[in-house]
Amino acid sequence: MILFRTEKKTSPLSIFSGIKHIIFIGVLCFFIPTLTAQIQPRQLRKEVLRSQNPQQQEKKTTKGKKKATAKDMQDFKPLAPIQSPLDNKRATLVYLENSETLSFDQLINPDVQVLKGNVRFRHDNALMYCDSAYFYEKANSLDAFGHIKINQGDTLFVYGDYLFYDGNMKLARLRQNVRMVNRQTVLTTDSLNYDRKVNLAYYYTGGKISDDLNTLTSVWGQYSPSTNEALFRNKVHMTNENFVMDADTMKYNSKTTVANIVGPTHIIYKEETDIYSNLGWYNTSSEQSMLLNRSLVKHKDGKTMVGDTIFYDKKKKFGEGFSKVELLDSVRNATLYGDYVYYNEKDENGMATDSALFVDRSEKDTMYLHADTLYTSKDSIYDKVRALYNVRFFRSDVQGLCDSLIYNARDSILYMHGEPVLWAEENQLSGDFIQIFTKNQQVEKVKIQQAAMAVQQVDSIHYNQLSGKEIVALVDSGQLRKVNVNGNAETIYYPIDDKDSTMVGINKTQSSFVAMYLKDKKVDRIVLTTTSSGIMYPIEQLSGGDLYLKNYFWLGEQRPMKKEDVFIVFPDKPREKPGTSSLAAPVQKDSKGKTDTINSQK
Predict the structure, then answer these.
(1) C-alpha distance from residue 185 to each of 213, 223, 252, 255 (Å)
(2) How far apart are alpha carbons 139 and 168 in whole angstroms?
(3) What's the DSSP call for residue 586?
(4) 246 and 219 in contact (C-beta within 8 Å)?
């Protein structure tokens, strides 16, 4: 045994004496795609759509395969065996720069140098420190023990208790109390493999990466100090002062603080908002996100947004969705649908357009309301709904159409503007302005002002008609019971013989006030003021325009008969008496805004 103290560097020429041992070391390398935090939303959306749902493709390719575990990753075969610098032209030598003592056994193992005290190695631009080490000079590798420190450049430092380093592969394997520090980012674990060739570190038995904003833990992780990009798999958990995030797989950039969602992910924001997504990105600094693949944003006030694509800004409390979006209000039991929907949490305002539909399930009968644009808002504690342009709605007991509609829960009144038409049972009500009064979630009264008209069909030619300045229709138990006409009241009425159900004649009256009573959905009797004038005509005596009042029109073919009919669009044509013109064929919009001609007959 030869023992001596030295400060002299070991000569590199000794590597030419031959190699007696070849050591194989397992290396696992994963490639991280470049994360671009500042991708424009439209650009990212196009890329995701072009990929044709990569999440489903990943499920198909992995179906039936055993899920990888930390032990499986540890048992992966090495990519290549350790080579001598003579066989690897790209390999560079590891130099011993300092050691208090150096010893070796010439007989037993002359290729191992035992180093103790303030040991320092240099390999390219990296310095490695330790308390003691075994230096395999011919194999260009070393085993280091105690107070391990690797210093690469000015910003990267790695610490641990044990180091196994292969200079040919530039692979450092650190064990126990491992810590990698890269500026403000700190990685801690018990087992870390650091590939200096590609500047990539990974762990497989559990680890943690933290920066100024976030702390992430996972069973398996990978980190690139040069790009600040990290990939996490298996029980990924991120903590932030404002939220926590759990995922199966996640990509994260510690410089941009953007988390890329690439697997089932759940974000809980201060117990106020829950976000569920399996594809997209979340900027943990600005708290803006883009969520794809039918993601969901749920608020504690009962509002939930679901859509193919959702842009959400948590700081501004604002979200908007694209394509097949649903905004559900579980408190009111209503849903707003559309291919574009936005919702503001601060003022509780919502808007939907492009195939917009409002479904109100709060009452006994469900209301389906369609318009070009729908708005929902909060008036103090009361809900408010506004519908603009091409409004159509359906409920089992009442249907209607108009140009604009407003409903305010404060007074429980539905306001219809712009040539409104309302159908209840066999009756069509119209005028310049219609108000629908509700009580206990049922229609109680309908008030029509200006050019007010009530029409009931008797057969294909004859119609009972009431017109005046104002019409008030009273509803009881869901059925129309009485209609009052105030001011310049005119009627055309066809009395029916109870014996054979035939029309007796045509009764035309004029009066300042008319009250019409209905029974079993038919006109039972009409009461006029004493100053009224009226004439009964034989059926065959009148024809053509004499059968109709001035403001008469009949739009039975436009009446929504089922919920799907609210999407039917009829051309804007003048409302004329029968025989003077014919309506063009209606069209129905599809989800892409295209139109198809359909049969208007019900």
Answers:
(1) 10, 10, 12, 9
(2) 8
(3) P
(4) no
Number of CB atoms found within 10 A of residue 245's CB: 23
Nearest to 425 by CA among 437, 405, 447, 443: 443
The pLDDT mean for the chain works out to 81
Q: Position 159: which residue type? A: Y
Rounded-to-integer distance, Cα 132 and Cα 162, Å: 10
The Cα 84–Cα 464 span in angstroms is 105
Say which DSSP state 184 is in.
Answer: T
Query: Which secondary structure element, helix H or strand E, spans residue 250, and what is its range?
Result: strand 243-253
Alpha carbons 173 and 150: distance in angstroms, whole number: 11
- Rounded-to-integer distance, Cα 356 and Cα 405, Å: 14
**How far does CA 271 lie from the centroid of its chain?**
18
pLDDT of 74 over the 50 cut: no
Total residue count of the chain as it appears in this document? 602
- Residue 178 to residue 55: CA distance in whole angstroms: 34
pLDDT tens-digit map of 100-109: 999 988 788 8
Residues in contact with 184: Cβ distance below 8 Å, sequence separation at least 6, in sequence order: 211, 212, 254
Other C-beta atoms lying within 10 Å of the C-beta of residue 165: 29
Residue with token string 């644009």: 373
Residue 7 to residue 519: CA distance in whole angstroms: 115
The phi and psi torsions of 396 (rounded to 5 degrees) equal -60, -30
Say how far apart CA 290 and CA 504 lie, in whole Å: 70
Partnered with residue 193 across adjacent β-strands are: 173, 202
Q: How far apart are the C-alpha atoms of 261 and 238, rounded to whole Å?
A: 12
Rounded distance, CA 423 to CA 305, Å? 33
Reduced to 3 states (helix: H, G, I; strand: E, B; else coil), residue 539 is helix
* pTM of structure: 0.74
Q: Which two tokens stand for residue 111?
A: 């290729």
Distance CA 106, CA 98 (A): 21
Closest CA to 318 of 293, 292, 350: 350
Q: Quick one: average pLDDT of 423-444?
A: 87
Question: Under the phi-then-psi rule, with left for phi > 0, alpha for psi from -120 to 50, and beta for the rest, what region is 530?
Answer: alpha
Amino acid identity, residue 103? Answer: S
Nearest to 404 by CA among 224, 547, 393: 393
Which of 302-308's residues contact partners 24+ apart within 8 Å by CB, and which partners?
A: 302/329, 302/330, 302/331, 302/332, 303/327, 303/328, 303/329, 303/330, 303/343, 303/345, 303/348, 303/350, 304/328, 304/330, 305/341, 305/343, 307/341
Q: Are 263 and 277 in contact (CB under 8 A)?
A: no
- Rounded mean pLDDT of 371-375? 95
Burial-class residue 294 by CB neighbours within 10 Å (0-12, 13-18, 19+): middle
pLDDT confidence band for 578 (50 / 70 / 90): low
Q: Hey, CA dihedral for 346, 347, 352, 356, is it positive or negative?
A: positive
